[in-house]
Amino acid sequence: SAVISQKPSRDICQRGTSLTIQCQVDSQVTMMFWYRQQPGQSLTLIATANQGSEATYESGFVIDKFPISRPNLTFSTLTVSNMSPEDSSIYLCSVKALARTSGTDTQYFGPGTRLTVL
Amino acid sequence: DAKTTQPTSMDCAEGRAANLPCNHSTISGNEYVYWYRQIHSQGPQYIIHGLKNNETNEMASLIITEDRKSSTLILPHATLRDTAVYYCIVRPLYNFNKFYFGSGTKLNVKP
Fold it and tell me: What does DSSP say about strands A105-109 and B55-56: parallel, antiparallel, or unpaired?
């Protein structure tokens, strides 16, 4: 399993500004993921971030809007750039790790960052 | 990618078993069934996953039909803290970024 922390836990930002969200894992992991959860909606995958390579973005998400860094095997950042009220969401970091009981892979999630853009 | 269908919401009495169904009729042979839950305002919590055999851990049991077209997550003794949205997800074994969340089932555990 993996224990994940995110900073900040929440923030209120002005439109046009940028916010960088940090994700820290208690163990080394190869694959990290960033999700968005808009109000009242399910989770949507933004991108996959592997250490040592460029992030891979899902359809509808671009690097200029959501630049991602992955400097080592325990840390990643997601930046929400030039924010608008439509970016108000919960942003979640996730990692691939072995499930405790089965010995096969699953994803573990951080607590999320609740972003409100005014 | 295989899709899943879940009821929008379910009620369960505290102390009783909660049985949450999931339909995944287009599942292929190399796809696992995963269950997560999300308690309000928290990150999703991994519960259990399986391929074709029934699985049990300290949180729940997963029953997968023989044809693998549906599954049921069982919480044996539901408590008020089990009130959450439960997501059933089908994922290919070797394509790990294909982890798509549907709408899930809102389980309401009532006293």
Answer: unpaired
